[in-house]
Amino acid sequence: MPKEKILEVLDIARYAASGGNGQPVQWLVIYDPEEVKKIAGLTIEWMRTLINTDHPMSGYVPILISAWEQEYDIICRDAPHLLFAHIPEDNQIASVDAIIALTHFDLSAPAFGIGTCWAGFVAAAAMFYEPLQKELGLPAGRKSAYAMMFGNPEYKVYGIPRRKPLEVMWK
Ligand SMILES: Cc1cc2nc3c(=O)[nH]c(=O)nc-3n(C[C@H](O)[C@H](O)[C@H](O)COP(=O)(O)O)c2cc1C
What is the pLDDT along the chain (171 residues), one digit of tens a residue? Predict the structure, then answer.
């Protein structure tokens, strides 16, 4: 995917609202597919550390690890690129700004022919696993808030995804 196209979508995300207009969100684009694979591998490595612990994911990770070992990329879905929204370590509310900005990216990307998927496993590993944090090499004082994989979509979606019925309370 051309870098210019990615920059166009990120430029839209630049207009996302942020608390107090603090604009704390910056980006790390993992452009090299080999590096995306490496990050997926480190995410699996982090998952191995959760086995037999009281971590809420501990019962679930063996399935993911086993899929990875069978060369099925359950972590980054063979996406060529990975996007990290990063924020100041000491800012308590910036994670909300990061999610808003990433949502702008998510919603704008299809108009540019880009397919996206929230990368929750990678995001969790980036929060807690030091070797992955080192690999990302974010500037000092900044931490990953969340991640999103993206690339040329393999499938075209025609339908509207099914959802639970709307639940609203009025007072
Ligand atoms: C916060 C968040 C984290 C997610 N993490 C992952 C992930 O790590 N891997 C993945 O394949 N999908 C991930 N997803 C995608 C969801 O599984 C998907 O959005 C959901 O099943 C609904 O499908 P839809 O987006 O096609 O409507 C994530 C979605 C969200 C919102």
Answer: 999 999 999 999 999 999 999 999 999 999 999 999 999 999 999 999 999 999 999 999 999 999 999 999 999 999 999 999 999 999 989 999 999 999 999 999 999 999 999 999 999 999 999 999 999 999 999 999 999 999 999 988 889 889 999 999 999
**18 burial class (0-12, 13-18, 19+ CB within 10 angstroms)?**
middle
User: From the CA of 72, how far away is ligand 1's center (Å)?
Assistant: 17
Angle (deg, nearest 10), helices 33-48 and 120-128 = 70
**Tokens at residue 52, please?**
């037999």
Question: 82 pairs with which residues across the strands?
Answer: 30, 149
CATH code for the domain in which residue 67 is found: 3.40.109.10
The total number of structural domains that make up the chain: 1
Task: Give ligand 1 pocket residues (Cβ under 6 A).
Answer: 77, 117-121, 161
Tell whether 171 is covered by a domain: no
CB 100 within 8 A of CB 16: yes
Q: Which domain holds residue 43?
A: 3-151
Sign of CA dihedral 97, 108, 84, 126: positive
Give this prediction's pTM: 0.96
Q: Which residue owns the Cα nearest ligand 1 atom 22?
A: 161
